[in-house]
């Protein structure tokens, strides 16, 4: 919980103070790369929160807490739903803070809330994927590092403004990253519109979470 409180503050400070200071001393212009910078700061947040819940679930599995839940009035799905919804809420609040406090781009609160919400759907997804492919914390750490590297793909996609960008669409974080780019650059300079990125991204994120949770449930519960 302490880590969850400190993490978004750290990234907000980097965006608001560290990057402008570096830009001033090195004659680096932030404005042309504002969507890249904001996408990186925003995308890292749910992955970090997802890794935390992923390791928490791994620890529960090691301590046989999952098996204990099965003999209580609380069902496994209720137990996991509470955990995953909580990590989504924490990630949502953290993403909103990072986008607002970093002040890389001036966004309305409406867009901050929408971008943060869709981005934060990657948090439970990350935690579930870590547990699907890991049976212990060492394997979980390796998968976590791989999940962190996947953030690079949505950022790379911002280079493209034609149909080639859709090759990166398999990564759920691609869609909120392109939403940010559409806000910064305008709909005329991206392949799809902000609204299309929003609705496709929302549908794809919900679908991905549902499928991955079913796979996770089958692996853990059988």
Structure description:
The chain is globular and about 60 Å long. The longest helix has 29 residues. The chain has one domain. Helix 5 packs antiparallel against helix 9. With 222 residues, the chain is mainly α. 76% of the residues lie in helices and 0% in strands.
Alpha-carbon distance between the two ends: 31 Å
Q: How much helicity do the residues have?
A: over 70%
Poorly predicted regions are none
How many β strands by DSSP?
Answer: 0
Q: Strand count, sense and closure of the main sheet?
A: none
- Shape, per Cα inertia axes: globular
Instruction: Please indicate the percent range of residues in DSSP E strands (runs of 2 or more).
Output: under 5%
Radius of gyration: 18 Å
The ordered string of helix (H) and strand (E) elements is: HHHHHHHHHH
Question: How many separate structural domains?
Answer: 1
Report the mean per-residue pLDDT as an integer: 85
Number of helices: 10
**Helix-strand category:** mainly alpha
């Amino acid at each position: 919980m302490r880590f969850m409180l400190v993490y978004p503050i750290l990234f907000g400070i980097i965006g608001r103070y560290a990057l402008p200071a570096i830009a001033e001393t090195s004659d680096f212009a932030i404005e042309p790369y504002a969507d890249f910078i904001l996408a990186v700061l925003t995308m890292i947040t749910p992955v970090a929160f997802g890794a935390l819940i992923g390791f928490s679930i791994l620890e529960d599995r090691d301590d046989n807490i999952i098996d204990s839940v099965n003999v209580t009035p609380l069902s496994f799905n209720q137990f996991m739903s509470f955990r995953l919804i909580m990590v989504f809420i924490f990630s949502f609040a953290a993403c909103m803070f990072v986008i607002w406090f970093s002040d890389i781009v001036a966004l309305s609160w409406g867009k901050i809330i929408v971008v943060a919400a869709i981005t934060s759907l990657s948090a439970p997804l990350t935690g579930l994927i870590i547990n699907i492919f890991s049976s212990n914390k060492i394997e979980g750490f390796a998968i976590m590092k791989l999940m962190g590297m996947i953030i690079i793909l949505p950022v790379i996609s911002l280079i493209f403004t034609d149909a080639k960008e859709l090759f990166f669409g398999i990564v759920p974080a691609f869609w909120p990253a392109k939403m940010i780019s559409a806000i910064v650059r305008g709909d005329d300079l991206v392949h799809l519109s902000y609204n299309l990125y929003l609705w496709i991204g929302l549908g794809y994120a919900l679908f991905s979470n549902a499928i991955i949770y079913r796979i996770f449930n089958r692996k853990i519960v059988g």
